[in-house]
């Protein structure tokens, strides 16, 4: 977690932990032809397998741009006045 002081209020940056939020979304694009793997939530293995199979079918296609998306949430720190109001409001 990262802590920063912004506009005189303390905020904390962390990983999004809301129900249903993926820990990551993984994908890859072939740099030779632009073919794209089906993005997957939480697991990168299916994308890796897709890349291997893609090269197996197209032996000259060996470079990929892999993408991993992560989600963050900023929350008020203990001394931040938004903490009390957030506690009363469902997110
Ligand atoms: Zn390709």
TrEMBL record:
Classification via Pfam families: DUF7848
InterPro entries cross-referenced by the UniProt entry: DUF7848
Every DUF7848 domain range: 1-78
Name of the protein in question: DUF7848 domain-containing protein
Protein's organism: Streptomyces sp. R39
């Amino acid at each position: 977690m990262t802590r920063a002081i912004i506009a005189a209020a303390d905020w904390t940056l962390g990983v999004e932990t809301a129900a249903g939020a993926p820990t990551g979304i993984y994908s890859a694009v072939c740099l030779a032809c632009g073919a794209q793997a089906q993005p997957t939530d939480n697991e990168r293995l299916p994308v890796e397998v897709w890349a291997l199979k893609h090269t197996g079918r197209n032996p000259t296609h060996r470079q990929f741009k892999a993408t991993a998306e992560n989600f963050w949430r900023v929350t008020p720190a203990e001394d931040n006045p938004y903490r009390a109001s957030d506690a009363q409001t469902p997110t």
